[in-house]
Amino acid sequence: MSDALEPIRQKIDALDHDLVRLLNERLGLAAEIGKVKRSSGGSIYASEREDKVLRKVCGLNEGPIKDEALKAIYREIMSAAIALEKATKIVYLGPEATNTHAAAIKKFGASIDYEGMGTIADLFTAVEKGEADYAVIPIENSTEGSVREALDNFVESDLKIVAQIYLEISHSLISNESLEGITKVYSKDQALAQCRHWLQRHLPHAQLIDASSTARAVEIAANEPGAAAVAGELAAQHHDVPVIAANIQDKSDNTTRFFVLGKKPAGAVGSGRDMSSFLISLGDQASSHSGALLKMLMPMAERGINLSKIESRPSKRRPWDYYFFVDVSGHYQDANMQEALSELSAFCPMVKWLGSYPVVN
């Protein structure tokens, strides 16, 4: 068998030689692009360019490699390119090994510097002060809905959404105890809610305790007798605590959406398949004029702009005053979008653009 394998292995070795040479050649060109971007004040990370590259290479793919595997490889290549173009720091809702950390790595790869922070407000502040280049924040879960703290921070911040990430969330029960010995279960409130029915069936007498993060929950469970945590396997591996039961989330398609925030918006042209987010206030019209909300939506609808999300949040300035967070299809610079926004601005006291970013990750 060894004689039969040797010619094949020699071909693989030759291909590896070419791949390494070509990768370094590609990264050298990326470094040149970085010099141009720095001299012109442009952003190093361009989500619209990333999306186009991933779509292009998948279009070239004739197999047998799957598109998802090819995307993962190219994300690491682009991660190395970003690191060569400029030392880049990403902050995320920490500590290490949280789902937000996993989402950040999925988007930016292993070549970037990461730092976990305690609150979503801390993430906004770090980017606003220039202590980090980008922040990754959870924005909504397919089971439990929006992360309210994230929405509220957009009201006062000038940061822009430059990309989005979708991450399938798989929760595990993690503990040094057997199932029978568990009396307390720690986790983030949303994670506990996403596993509510499983916990009621298998641990009906256990106390459910909110923790600052899923990773922190595992850290507590590692040192407290009778304690368990609900978290991802990454956190279990990081803290070296056994997984007692895997995939305990109540919904098999449990997915969380994350935003990447930066000081500057993504490209003015867009990827061709974009989404835009806005913060809109109707002011006194919301309570004093019938049909005010419908009037707010009509400028978009009349121009064929699809609304994919609308959510109200109290302004906290006076009772019964609300902001509306809206996601729509299209890019901010599209002609029909600009027409709609112009019409909206005529009767809405605030129409704040939060960012435009590619639909597909």
Please, could you describe this protein's structure?
The strands form three sheets. Strands 1, 2, 3, 4, 5 and 11 form a six-stranded mixed sheet that branches. This protein has four domains: 17-40 and 47-86, Chorismate Mutase Domain, subunit A (Up-down Bundle); 88-169 and 252-264, D-Maltodextrin-Binding Protein, domain 2; 172-248, 3-Layer(aba) Sandwich (D-Maltodextrin-Binding Protein, domain 2), CATH 3.40.190; 266-358, Alpha-Beta Plaits (2-Layer Sandwich). It has helices spanning 2-40, 47-60, 67-85, 99-108, 120-128, 148-153, 189-194, 196-202, 214-223, 233-239, 285-288, 292-301, 335-345; strands spanning 89-93, 113-117, 134-141, 145-146, 160-168, 172-175, 184-187, 207-210, 227-231, 243-245, 255-262, 274-281, 307-314, 322-329, 350-358. The longest helix is centred in the N-terminal third of the chain and has 39 residues, at 2-40. It has 361 residues and is α/β, with parallel strands linked by helices. α1 (2-40) crosses α3 (67-85). Residues 89-263 form the Prephenate dehydratase domain.
Give the SSE map.
Blueprint (H helix, E strand, L loop, with lengths): L1 H39 L6 H14 L6 H19 L3 E5 L5 H10 L4 E5 L2 H9 L5 E8 L3 E2 L1 H6 L6 E9 L3 E4 L8 E4 L1 H6 L1 H7 L4 E4 L3 H10 L3 E5 L1 H7 L3 E3 L9 E8 L11 E8 L3 H4 L3 H10 L5 E8 L7 E8 L5 H11 L4 E9 L3
Parallel strand pairs: 1-2, 1-3, 7-8, 7-9
Antiparallel strand pairs: 3-4, 3-11, 5-11, 6-9, 6-10, 12-14, 12-15, 13-14
Helix pairs in contact: 1-3, 2-3
